[in-house]
């Protein structure tokens, strides 16, 4: 990783482009899962469009891995200098001593988004401790001043205290929750997705506003563009389903900005409502993946038709 960190960013991106091209060439689960997700979430696109977007996505995901050493191990000033533009920067302003909840979906360079957020002021970032490289991850993410709060009850208390002090709190909002408590199913691109309620609980308890922020990778390989987007209304609703739906609407809005830079290989829809079919199964070829999607669409339509009205 130290060797990779010495490479120019453009070289790391070219390397990722080549590795992603290789992954897209032969049948494998990452390639299949990305195509299934894309076909389910973008039914208006034809086969050729879906395959092109899938292949582009795999190249962008590979760039994420190839640039990680560059973002983690270089001096923080050099890393932050890669931010070429910030859109919606006014949304990062904290008012009247109030904290701000900042949600960063897995789009582009989310590691850079966290570093940039902590540079704006005192920040606590919710993170999942890792079995390997955890010390490196904590040092890397904390080098612009962030406090890392583990995904535990103690970590949640750290987030609440940070918001009560008027600090920033950073959360990755698009991971599938592991526990039944504190999550509900809500539409994500029209498909039921098991969705966290942590953001809603933090917003309701502290009164802190919520925004989305992500770092888009620029096509010219020169750096990144930060996007800040206001969260949809209802994300702080007392109704769990309304809040989860608003959270996923915000994620959708971010993803549609640069859909090729989202982590489509991730099995975001692994957990299904009772009685709904598994999504990530079947053969690994493109034809078999698209046949699986057609079966899923037919089954989803039948389940939706049979569901009682709200």
Automatic annotation (TrEMBL):
Main location: membrane
GO molecular function: acyltransferase activity
Cellular compartment(s): Cell inner membrane
Keyword flag Acyltransferase: yes
One GO-annotated biological process of the protein: glycolipid biosynthetic process
This protein's GO CC annotations: plasma membrane
Annotated InterPro entries: LipA_acyltrans
Highest taxon, organism lineage: Bacteria
Annotated Pfam families: Lip_A_acyltrans
Keyword annotations from UniProtKB, A to Z: Acyltransferase, Cell inner membrane, Cell membrane, Membrane, Transferase
Signal peptide (residue range): none
Protein name (database record): Lipid A biosynthesis acyltransferase
Native source species: Marichromatium purpuratum 984
């Amino acid at each position: 990783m130290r060797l990779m960190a010495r490479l120019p960013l453009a070289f790391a991106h070219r390397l990722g482009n080549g590795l992603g091209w290789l992954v897209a060439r032969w049948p494998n689960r990452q390639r299949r899962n990305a195509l299934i997700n894309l076909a389910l979430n973008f039914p208006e696109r034809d086969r050729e469009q879906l395959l092109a977007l899938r292949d582009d996505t795999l190249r962008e995901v590979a760039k994420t891995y190839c640039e990680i050493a560059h973002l983690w191990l270089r001096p923080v000033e050099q890393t932050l200098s890669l931010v070429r533009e910030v859109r919606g920067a006014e949304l990062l302003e904290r008012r009247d001593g109030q904290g701000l909840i900042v949600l960063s979906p897995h789009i582009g360079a989310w590691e850079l988004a966290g570093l940039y957020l902590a540079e704006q002021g005192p920040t606590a970032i919710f993170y999942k401790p890792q079995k390997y490289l955890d010390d490196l991850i904590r040092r890397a993410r904390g080098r612009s001043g962030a406090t890392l709060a583990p995904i535990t009850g103690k970590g949640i208390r750290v987030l609440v205290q940070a918001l009560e002090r008027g600090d920033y709190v950073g959360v990755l909002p698009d991971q599938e929750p592991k526990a039944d408590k504190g999550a509900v199913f809500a539409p994500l691109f029209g498909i039921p997705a098991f969705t966290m309620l942590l953001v809603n609980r933090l917003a309701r308890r502290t009164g802190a506003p919520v925004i989305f922020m992500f770092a888009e990778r620029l096509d010219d390989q020169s750096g990144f563009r930060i996007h800040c987007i206001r969260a949809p209304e209802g994300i702080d609703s007392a109704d769990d389903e309304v809040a989860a739906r608003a959270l996923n609407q915000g994620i959708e809005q971010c993803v549609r900005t640069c859909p090729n830079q989202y982590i489509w290989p991730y099995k975001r829809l692994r957990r299904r409502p009772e009685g709904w079919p598994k999504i990530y199964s079947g053969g690994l070829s493109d034809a078999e993946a698209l046949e699986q999607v057609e079966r899923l669409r037919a089954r989803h339509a039948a389940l939706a038709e049979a569901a009682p009205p709200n």
